[in-house]
Every structure is written in structure tokens, then in C-alpha cells.
Amino acid sequence: MKSAYTDLRVARTKEAIRDALTELINEKGFDSITVKDITARANINRGTFYLHYRDKYDLFDLWSSIGDLYFIFIFSKR
Question: Under CATH, which number does the domain 2-76 receive?
């Protein structure tokens, strides 16, 4: 039971980080964003960020890859 709760917390944290990155890219552009900006917007500690990602480039690469796979999946169904 505890692991399901932990997984939900991790999912929420990653969602908050992803949403923060998206908002900040729209506001400032990727090059101007710092990990401090992302963590402040996501309301998490920097240590939590680094628990999941190496840096902002790692985060961006991961979510870009997921987006690419999503579009490949959607368009392959047509």
C-alpha cells in the first residue's frame, strides 16, 4: 500500500516540474530558465529536482522524447 502512495507523490512531483518548465519556457525561453526557477515555480526543493533529473537539459530531453513518441503513436494509428 505504501508504494502506491509513494508512486502517486512522485507522479505529482514530476507533473509539477513539467508544468513549471512549460510555463517558464513560454514566459522566458528555455535558455533563460534556471533549475532554481523551475523548483520555485513547482514549489519543490532543488534536491527533489535532482533526485529525478540531472539538470534542465535532462528534463527537457526526457519530456521532448515522450512528446515525440506520443505523436508517433497518434499518427501511426491513422
Answer: 1.10.10.60
